[in-house]
Design goal:
- This protein is an alpha/beta fold.
- It folds into 2 domains: about 1-170, Leucine Aminopeptidase, subunit E, domain 1 (3-Layer(aba) Sandwich); about 185-330 and about 360-435 and about 455-505, Aminopeptidase, CATH 3.40.630.10.
- It has 14 helices and 20 strands.
- The protein has an 8-stranded mixed β-sheet, sandwiched between helices. Strands 1, 2, 3, 4, 5, 6 and 7 form a 7-stranded mixed β-sheet that branches. It has a 3-stranded mixed β-sheet with strand order 12-13-17.
- β4 and β5 form a beta hairpin.
- The chain is elongated, with a radius of gyration of 24 Å.
- The relative contact order is 0.12.
- It binds ligand BES, manganese (II) ion and zinc ion.
- Ligand BES binds near residues 294, 362 and 390.
């Protein structure tokens, strides 16, 4: 997709589709109170072209509501699409992001391949963050998951222009726009990985894709397999892969900016189960096909590393993805087996883990991945994983879960969410939960029972990170969208990429 930012009057722009946002500025409440849509543009030609429809009461400027005008009077554009941002009091930059996605998803099925989006003009919506949000929303909205359809008609947008008025801080808006492109394309990169079926994206292929990306964007990449797992004594990670004909992949991506020798080292660790059958504790077949997305946490980390490589924040980052396939087999691990995780330090023995349920495999691969990140020098850790069905029971599909063992680290993470527009809800940790995973035969067991399943899973990881500041993102309920929204296709969401990138950037010196 060709993207461009320009500063020009909207009335003379030649385009198939000119998109302008509107808000509902009505503050009064009551059954007889009419909505009051206000076009967020200072352009008088646009105002008069839109006047009749705004007066009609047919269009309320609700969030992602659209109205289309053909041959709008006084404009050069062939069509004018007005997209609602919802109530003024609630409209944020994230509403702008969604509205841009809505416009793109409006255009695509109508065969419109080129569009122009007007930057909203409103005191509540600062220009630079809006420019970033518009282009992000548009690029994210352009993604469709129909990769393998033989009758696929490529409806993707070829050219996208964002237009702002001339009298604004251009360099500031331009750099925000450029960042938005990088971040959204990285999110889509993660989504394209998550969308791949298990037969097309094995652990080794995920490793190859990560390595190819790394050489493209200038990251160091190492991709290891079984031998390295044995060498590092990653008994927990290896136990998951042992039942599969597909070898595991330990993917390490490094971002080491020049001249940054001191300061924090951020460790990004992702769960990369390319297919999760549950293993011997096999899952029911209903919906099992969905378990191709069990590498969404790993994909989010690879996507985040892509954005980091291109945005170049001055902080060192290590990305680790633990990729394996969880299969039932004669060689697979069994309930009751005891595994020894990677030692946290050379002079400390690895923790022993009693396997209660082979379907609780994500925490096993992450245990060793987190330990390895520490060994490589990470001072702060963040992991992302489709770890538990339980998080979806707790939070539904509108918030992902976030766990953290360090208040300042969580405050920092929370503060980036207004920029990323992603929703994470903090979940508790606690000794009572940690007690639920004590084992009679070994140190810990890999499940803590039905109640508080997402929390006991987090406490399992906590055993391996100890006091290193750490955030755990359980994205199981959010990584796959079951029903299309006006601004995003159904399928892989790419959740996590934007927030993780922003969290990393917050550490830049
Ligand atoms: N990959 C699943 C979690 C999952 C469930 C992701 C639904 C996406 C949608 C994970 O490996 C798993 O199977 N977790 C079990 C843990 C249980 C056995 C303690 C679960 O949540 O049921
Ligand atoms: Mn599982
Ligand atoms: Zn899993």
């Amino acid at each position: 997709m060709h993207t461009e930012l320009s500063f020009a009057p909207l009335a003379d722009i030649e385009t198939e589709l000119l998109v302008v946002p509107a808000i509902d500025a009505q503050t009064a409440k009551g059954p007889d109170v009419k909505p009051r849509p206000v076009l967020l543009s200072a352009d008088p030609a646009l105002q008069s072209a839109a006047n009749a429809v705004l007066e009609s009461g047919e269009f309320k400027a609700g969030a992602n509501e659209t109205v289309l005008l053909h041959a709008p009077a006084g404009l050069t554009a062939k069509r004018l699409l007005i997209v609602g941002l919802g109530k003024q009091a609630k409209a944020t930059v994230h509403s702008v992001r969604k509205a841009a996605g809505t416009a793109v998803r409006f255009a695509k099925p109508r065969g419109i391949r080129e569009l122009v989006l007007a930057l909203p003009m409103s005191p509540g919506l600062p220009e630079a963050p809006s420019a970033r949000a518009v282009v992000e929303g548009a690029i994210v909205g352009d993604f469709d998951p129909d990769t393998y359809r033989s009758d696929r008609k490529d409806q993707s947008i070829q050219s996208l222009k964002v237009v702002a008025v001339a009298d604004i801080d251009k360099p500031f808006v331009e750099s925000a726009f450029a960042e938005g492109i990088v971040i959204a394309e990285s999110q889509n990169f993660a989504r394209s990985l998550v969308n791949e079926p298990g037969n097309k994206l094995t652990p080794s292929i995920l490793g190859q894709r990560a390595a190819a990306l790394a050489s493209e964007v200038g990251l160091k990449a190492e991709v290891y397999s079984t031998e390295k797992l044995h060498e590092l004594k990653m008994g927990a990670f290896w136990s998951v892969s042992q039942g599969s004909a597909e070898p595991p992949a330990l993917i390490v991506l490094r971002y080491e900016p020049e001249g940054v020798a001191a300061g924090p080292v951020l460790g990004l660790v992702g769960k990369g189960i390319t297919f999760d059958t549950g293993g011997i504790s096999i899952k029911p077949s209903d919906n099992m096909e969905k378990m191709k997305y069990d590498m969404a946490g790993g994909a989010a980390m690879i996507g985040a590393m892509r954005a980091i490589a291109l945005l170049k924040p001055r902080v060192r980052v290590i990305g680790i993805v633990c990729a394996a396939e969880n299969m039932p087999d004669g060689k697979a691990q069994k309930p009751g087996d005891v595994q020894t995780a990677m030692p946290i330090a050379p002079d400390r023995p690895g923790k022993t883990i009693e396997i209660i349920n082979t379907d609780a495999e994500g925490r096993l691969v992450l245990a060793d991945g987190l330990t390895y990140a520490r060994q490589l020098g990470a001072t702060h850790l963040i992991d992302a994983a489709t770890l538990t069905g339980s998080i979806g029971i707790a939070l539904g599909t509108h918030n992902a879960g976030a766990f953290c063992n360090d208040e300042p680290t969580f405050a920092r993470f929370e503060s980036v969410l207004t920029v990323s527009g992603e929703k994470f809800w903090r979940m508790p940790l606690g000794e009572e939960y940690a007690d639920m995973i004590k084992s009679d035969i070994g140190d810990i067991k890999n499940t803590g029972g039905r109640y508080g399943g997402a929390i006991t899973a987090a406490e399992f990881l906590h055993v391996f990170v100890e006091d290193v500041p750490w955030i755990h993102l359980d994205i199981a309920g959010m990584a796959w969208i079951d029903e299309a929204k006006p601004y995003i296709a159904k399928g892989p969401s790419g959740v996590g990429v934007r927030s993780i990138v922003e969290w990393v950037r917050s550490y830049a010196q």
